[in-house]
Write a structure and sequence with these properties.
The complex is a heterodimer of chains A (578) and B (363). The model of chain A is unreliable at 1-22, 295-302 and 573-578 (pLDDT under 50). Chain A starts with a helix and ends in a 6-residue tail after the last helix. Chain A is 72% helix and 1% strand. The longest helix of chain A has 34 residues, at 76-109. Chain A has two domains: 23-54 and 355-578, MetI-like fold, CATH 1.10.3720.10; 75-354, Orthogonal Bundle (MetI-like fold), CATH 1.10.3720.10. In chain A, helix 5 (76-109) crosses helix 15 (311-340), helix 17 runs antiparallel to helix 18 (402-410) and helix 22 (484-511) runs antiparallel to helix 25. By secondary structure, chain A is mainly alpha-helical. Chain B starts with 11 loop residues before the first strand and ends with a strand. Chain B has helices spanning 50-58, 100-110, 115-128, 144-156, 174-191, 202-208, 226-231, 236-241, and strands spanning 12-21, 24-34, 39-43, 65-70, 73-74, 85-88, 162-166, 194-199, 211-216, 219-224, 246-248, 250-255, 258-263, 268-270, 282-285, 290-293, 304-314, 318-325, 328-335, 348-353, 359-361. Chain B is built from eight helices and 21 strands. In chain B, a hairpin with a 2-residue loop joins strand 1 and strand 2. Helices cover 23% and strands 34% of the residues of chain B. Classes of the chains: A mainly alpha (578), B alpha+beta (363). At the A-B interface, helix 10 and helix 11 of A face strand 6, helix 2 and helix 4 of B. Chain A: Keywords: Cell inner membrane, Cell membrane, Membrane, Transmembrane, Transmembrane helix, Transport. Chain A: Belongs to the binding-protein-dependent transport system permease family. Chain A: It comes from Roseomonas populi. Chain A: Its main location: membrane.
Chain lengths: 578, 363
């Protein structure tokens, strides 16, 4: 039926601008558009613009000035912090690449039974926030940590894994290398086998083949992953703070705002620098991907030809994999040990074991857990509602500007959590609630910050879910007499359910362990979520056990939700529209 | 052009090749002789092993048994990059990160030729395929037909000993296919390059190739010129794969000196004297070897078989009737000259079979 002229016209009509004026107007759509626009304006655009404005504003006159940037550049502490941030981010990319490259190469190039193992490696670090493992990594790899104690006994050497900036680089690369690994594996798998074979046929082999054909074809995926790692590390506040590294940009901004005060312009200048680098690295990544969709799989294609490994190669490959596996599992294992340890210092392993830390967490600080579940749950809900509305407006709506809502929501990707937190404090400090308190100190503001930060991911999930619902299914319902809202409720939403659930869980899981914006916005420990509690506990040696117990609880929450989202995604796969 | 002429044309010999993937036998005792300068086709249905055999010659597969000789030299142990065997891939496999010129120059650079010679050979190759002036484009900016020419230019630029083409026409639309296959033939002739062409389309193979190896289930069924294969198929598979064949089951009867073929249902068809009778044979003839007459007519010298018209298809140049004879159905092509009366479905018809054109074939 759909190939009849009438059917084609029916499908194309909503998209064609010429037809628009003949269709009945939908007042509900305009209301939805206005509400979403208002939300994004209030909780994303205004706070970020406020931060930027303050950075360029003379405090006395209110006029434009570059004086704050001058102060920033003429202060050794800040220039050092800037260079340190740059150095740490770049080195993290390098180290993460060194971890990811061999793994990607082994799994795509060889017939290799360890591929499943490597795929598991790929997601394991992502279910734990990097700061959670930071302290545990100190105990394992620090100057008097397990590894160095053993190395000292055996070889009388001490490797400064965790000294100063090294520690940040080490923790961040072990945590973020999966972004490079996943992107790299995907692009290597997408290379048509014939690409490589035709080069061999023309006389290329070995390293030349890799350098001239395989590497350039895999480059876009690599750059996308690498720029993601760069910006995550550049913006991160919690990991350097927990490792007691203060001479980096994000910690400096945090310390200035919290110790000097909201009026101090340096925090805003740093925020602008952070945004600038976020935009820059997103731009580099999109540049790398633009027009270079090398997904060239055709009939007979499907990844590089897999070679069988010789015995020696297999031994070497497994050795590398197990070394990396040990590294990746180190923070998890260390955290688990720490959460069960009575005393653990200057010893390879804890002196004794106890579950007292868990008892303490549940007895004294269970509000951290309930707060986290409430905040992350609400944030996930807001994201799914906003995401679905925007997706509907863009894909099915008739308002020409709907696309801009999508762009606006996605632009949250370029806003570091720290910047959003500072923006909220500054913008909403003067707004008083009915009970006389400031809006900036109300716990709901944390929920909103979490929702805005995770919105891009939820929006993409909702858009993908809606794209799988054929517009003709809706038209059939309208043709049978259903009104617009009823069509959405009875046809569209049920068909999107799987995708929406996956979007919710993704938002929930990542919001549950967010710390950058939260650190800025939490006003009292009664309102604090789990990640904040972990941070507070980890400040004192006595609190480390309880902090680690909270960390393990966070890992369990995120791990279970990740598992759930995989299950939902798999089940949802069976209900795609024809 | 002269820059790209093949050196001495080389032949290909495939000797006793067995190749399995796990328990699946993909090639079974394959023996072939491809002569120097010949345009040769591997023809067969998908999964028959033709592409595997081509990739074996190029060095992308390893056989468990047997060997491959190119230009008289055993290449079985050589990796793909040392074989000097040019291959054009079905997907063309143009590298998207290089311009057309860089793509064509690749093989020459790998051979460490002097820069000046690379430049002349690249230009010559592009001119040869009619793409001069397109050197600075990217593969994505070219049409499918142009991409294929680049792939061809890239391969002939290195002056390989032989040229292998893996389903080169399959990604082109129907009209382009006819044009390109002629151009391929012209190119092969002018370069005097031994060429192997893999296809599942018998028309493609018939129109461009000197000789064809028909393959099925990993084994070579028959090797010959297109006409030999069509007129004298070695078995039922070859008969059915090249053109349309009537294949009629029945038994061979001998009455004195003459032999006849009895179709299930009792109808007898006389066989020409001296026809070989293989075990379990079936009768094979082409639709155009039968003519269809209204019932009652009696042309001299031909035995008539009575049947009923079961269906008919208008093919343009001819009308193809399906006539039920006893338990079998026979296809008959009647040339269409316009305005003629045709037999109706359900009507009776008499088949006049040219007995000299029938074959007895085993499966």
């Amino acid at each position: 039926m759909s190939d009849t002229p009438a059917g084609t016209l029916g499908v194309a009509a909503p998209a064609s601008p010429g037809m628009r004026r003949f269709l009945p107007s939908r007042p509900g759509e305009a209301v939805a558009f206005a509400l979403v626009a208002l939300f994004l304006l209030a909780f994303l655009v205004v706070p970020v613009l406020t931060v930027v404005t303050v950075a360029f504003q003379d405090r006395a006159t209110g006029g434009f000035t570059l004086a704050h940037f001058g102060d920033f550049l003429s202060n050794d502490l800040f220039t050092t912090s800037f260079l340190n941030s740059l150095y740490v981010s770049l080195m993290s990319v390098v180290v993460a690449s060194l971890i990811a490259l061999p793994l990607a190469y082994f799994t795509t190039r060889f017939e290799f039974r360890g591929a499943i193992l490597v795929q598991t490696l790929g997601v394991l670090p992502l279910i734990m926030p990097p700061f959670a493992g930071a302290v545990a990594m100190g105990l394992l790899f620090g100057r008097s940590g397990t590894v160095n104690l053993l190395l000292g006994d055996l070889f009388d050497i001490n490797i400064p894994f965790m000294e100063g900036l090294n520690g940040v680089i080490f923790v961040q690369s072990v945590h973020y290398f999966p972004f490079i690994l996943l992107n790299l594996v995907a692009s290597l798998k997408n290379i048509d086998r014939a690409m490589e074979e035709s080069a061999q046929n023309l006389g290329a082999h070995g390293f030349r083949l890799f350098r001239r054909i395989v590497l350039p074809l895999a480059m876009p995926g690599y750059v996308a992953g690498a720029s993601l790692v760069f910006i995550k590390v550049f913006d991160d506040l919690a990991t350097p703070l927990l490792l007691n590294v203060r001479e980096m940009l994000a910690p400096q901004a945090y310390l200035r705002i919290t110790s000097v005060g909201l009026e101090d312009p340096i925090g805003y200048v740093i925020s602008v620098v952070l945004i600038l680098f976020s935009v820059l690295s997103l731009w580099v990544s999109s540049l790398a991907l633009r027009g270079k969709d090398y997904a060239t799989v055709q009939r007979g294609g499907g990844g590089l030809a897999r070679r069988r490994m010789s015995r020696g190669q297999a031994v070497a490959a497994y050795a590398v994999i197990f070394l990396i596996l040990a590294l990746v599992l180190a923070p998890h294992l260390g955290l688990l040990l720490l959460s069960l340890a009575t005393v653990w210092s200057f010893a390879p392993l804890p002196d004794g074991y106890t579950i007292a830390h868990y008892a303490r967490v549940f007895a004294e600080s269970s509000q951290y857990i309930t707060n986290t579940l409430i905040y992350a749950g609400l944030a996930g809900l807001i994201d799914v509602v906003l995401g679905t509305t925007i997706a509907l407006l863009v894909l099915r709506g008739r308002i020409a500007g709907a696309r801009w809502l999508d762009y606006l929501a996605m632009s949250a990707l370029a806003v570091p959590g720290l910047v959003l937190g500072i923006g909220y404090l500054r913008t909403f400090f003067g707004v008083t609630l009915p009970d006389g308190r400031s809006l900036a100190s109300f716990w709901g503001i944390i929920v909103l910050a979490l929702a805005v930060r995770r919105l891009p991911y939820a929006l993409r999930a909702c858009t993908a879910a809606l794209q799988q619902v054929s517009a003709s299914l809706e038209e059939a319902a309208e043709n049978l007499g259903a009104r617009r809202l009823r069509v959405i409720r009875r046809i569209v939403l049920p068909l999107m359910a799987g995708g929406l659930a996956a979007g919710f869980i993704t938002s929930f899981a990542t919001a549950a362990v967010e710390l950058s914006a939260t650190l800025m916005l939490v006003q009292s420990s009664g309102d604090a979520p789990l990640a904040y509690g972990l941070y507070v506990f980890m400040q004192s040696p006595a609190g480390r056990g309880a902090g680690a117990a909270l960390g393990i609880i966070a890992v369990v929450i995120v791990g279970v939700s990740t598992l759930l989202s995989h299950l939902v995604a798999e089940r949802g796969g069976g209900r795609k529209s024809p | 052009m002269s820059e790209l002429l093949a050196r001495e044309p080389a032949g290909i010999r495939v000797e006793g090749v067995d190749l399995s993937y796990g328990a699946t036998r993909v090639l079974k005792d394959v023996n072939l002789e491809i002569r120097p300068g010949e345009f040769f086709a591997f023809l067969g249905p998908s999964g028959c092993g033709k592409t595997t055999l081509l990739r074996l010659i190029a060095g992308f597969n390893a056989a468990q048994r047997g060997r491959v000789l190119v230009g008289g030299k055993d290449v079985s142990a050589l990796p793909p990059w040392k074989r000097d065997v040019g291959m054009v891939f079905q997907s063309y496999a143009l590298w998207p990160h290089m311009t057309v010129r860089r793509n064509v120059a690749f093989g020459l650079e790998e051979r460490r030729l002097p820069r000046a010679e690379i430049a002349t050979r690249v230009e010559a190759a592009l001119r040869l395929v009619g793409l001069d002036g397109m050197g600075d484009r990217r593969p994505a900016q070219l049409s499918g037909g142009q991409q294929q020419r680049v792939a061809l230019a890239r391969t002939v630029a290195v002056r390989p000993q032989v040229l292998l083409l893996d389903e080169p026409l399959s990604n082109l639309d129907a009209r382009l296919r006819v044009q390109v296959r002629r151009e391929l033939r012209d190119l092969q002739q002018s370069l005097r390059l031994t060429t192997v062409f893999v296809t599942h389309d018998q028309e493609e193979a018939n129109t461009v190739c000197d000789r064809i190896a028909v393959m099925n289930e990993g084994a070579v069924q028959q090797v010959g010129t297109p006409m030999e294969l069509y007129d004298h198929p070695a078995n039922l598979f070859v008969a059915g794969f090249l053109g349309t064949a009537n294949i009629v089951p029945g038994t061979v009867l001998r009455e004195g000196g003459a032999a006849a073929f009895e179709v299930a249902g009792g109808t007898r068809i006389p066989l020409p004297p001296g026809l070989a009778v293989p075990e379990g044979a079936r009768l094979m003839f082409r639709p155009q070897d039968v003519s269809l007459l209204p019932p009652g007519s009696d042309p001299a010298g031909r035995r008539l078989i009575e049947g009923e018209v079961a269906h008919r298809e208008f093919l343009g140049a001819s009308m193809r009737y399906g006539v039920r004879v006893g338990g079998a159905e026979v296809l008959v092509d009647v040339p269409h000259t316009g305005g003629e009366g045709h037999l109706q479905v359900g009507g009776r018809a008499a088949l006049a079979l040219d007995a000299t054109r029938v074959k007895l074939l085993a499966g």
